[in-house]
Specification:
By secondary structure, the chain is mostly beta strands. It contains three helices and twelve strands; from the N terminus they run H-E-H-E-E-E-E-E-E-E-H-E-E-E-E. It is globular.
Length: about 180
Amino acid sequence: MILPGHRLVSQKIINGLISPSLQVQPCGVDLTLKKVLTWTSAGTVDFDNSQRQTAFTKEIKFVSTGSPDLPGAIEIPKIDHPAVDLPQGSYLVEFNETVSVPLDVMGQIFVRSSLFRSGALLNAGVMDSGYNGSVGALLQVLNPAGLRLYKNARLAQFVFHQMSEPVDGYKGVYQGSTTMG
């Protein structure tokens, strides 16, 4: 059973929404872009985590784009629109929203159609029951012309499923994380 978006907010499963009226969807909640990171080192993954080393990252800063100058447009004040222009490649994105997943619920992140129609995909692992903390995903820009993302852009929809019974819950190293990189 999929939990409706309004329930995810009312039960505080997803927190930190910028605009609930825009982000709450029938089947989930839209996630908004906080920051974009790129990797600066290799990562290491093994069986028992004794050799695990998360790859180091650095943030790609947003730059001010201002209001668009459109021919024939009425005079409007210049507005700061921070954005990042990404060439083809893979990136780690962090969302503004955080989660507090109950022990009888699990989550999945899906790409919004406006993102894949622009030539980019999002991938993320299962959001385990009991996890509390920040949320991120792998962004793959496949469009040869690249992709412009504005700060707080809605990139993904977070969907949560009711499980048949409560479980012990997530106890991994990312519990309580406040950032992706």
